[in-house]
Amino acid sequence: MTENSQNILVIAGEASGEAHAARVLLALREQAPSLVVAGIGGDNMRAAGVEILVDFSELAVMGLVEVLKQYGKLKAILNQMIMRLDTHRPDLLVLVDYPGFNLRLAKAAKKRGIPVLYYISPKVWAWRAGRVKTIAKVVDQMAVLFPFEVPIYEQAGVKVQCVGHPLIDAVDTDQTREQTLAHLALDPDKQVVGLFPGSRHSEVGPLLPIMLAAAERLQARDPNLQFVLPIAQGKVASLIEQVVAESGVAVTRVSVTSETNEFYNLTASCDAIVAASGTVTLEIALLNTPHFLVYRVAPMTYRIMRRLVRIPYVGLCNIVTGKNLIQERLQDAVTVEAVAAELDQLLAEPNAKVAAEKVGKQVRTALGPAGGAARTVEVIIEMLGHKP
Predict the structure, then answer these.
(1) What's the pLDDT tens digit per position in 52-86?
(2) How far apart are the first and last CA of the chain?
(3) Considering its fold, how many domains does the chain have in total?
(4) CA-CA distance, 242 to 19, in Å (whole number)?
(5) Confidence class of residue 386 from pLDDT cuts 50, 70 and 90?
(6) Are residues 219 and 198 in the same domain?
């Protein structure tokens, strides 16, 4: 870093936020090529030119009980980032979702007079609404994805801008179904089922064995079915390979990277998908692919969350549209029999694709206009007082 160069610290603690942050940082590099960026992230941010101080997989824990088990490690990483604020004082701290960790770091930055931009709001409209008061004390600006989030922060006196959802720009394919399946040595005349177990150990561990057992059951009834499983780079990949190796089902693993449209090509080529709840369900919907979601955490975590969550849905497609568009299988309802039955129903439904296209249209409308990454870059540059 040169003496006069500006630098920012970016913290993305889980997969979907890390991918969104990377899109913004790629666009930022075009506007401000001399800006030095470091932080917590993964391969997507690394490809965007970020110095990765800690891989986000070290923080990728879902659930209240699960976080408590990893508290020591998370606290050590937090202390490392606080020390970074002193040793490499950033001109701007950019926090991406992941509120349990990021709000603590924001508090430390506030004490040091470091400006804080929070990109992708914590789900204060779903649970822990009291976090808005904390955000008002330690965050200088919110850059939110959904229009309905703006008045929540305006009422709390927080400077806020709706920048729009980056998936509107990002989700696209560059191959036909035939081209994608030929590349994977799969038969385009046979149905393809996607198993999307998530990107965290705490998701893959409980969900993937159930998905594979359901796939084995379906494959026994119909040997022509083909199963695909996308694997992103990172530490969770080894867990996925281990679980698949222990199963009895033939499944094509597909390594997907941020530099290509492999994941979107694969997703659009599936006839049905079972997916862990998360941003991936928005991507599946935008690609008009029939799917349903599953969600399973530690029993104590689920009991606590049922008391705290104030909205009727878990899936983002249902949340952003306010409609029950996508089937949700939660906790004890995530069984081998149930997953097999849901997939079977989607595969047998002749109008499943038409219905998925209607869902995709509603989700796209709810997510708003394109250009989200560019608008976020404008906010960053304004906060830096930087002229590209």
Answers:
(1) 999 988 876 555 545 556 677 889 999 999 999 99
(2) 18
(3) 2
(4) 25
(5) low
(6) yes
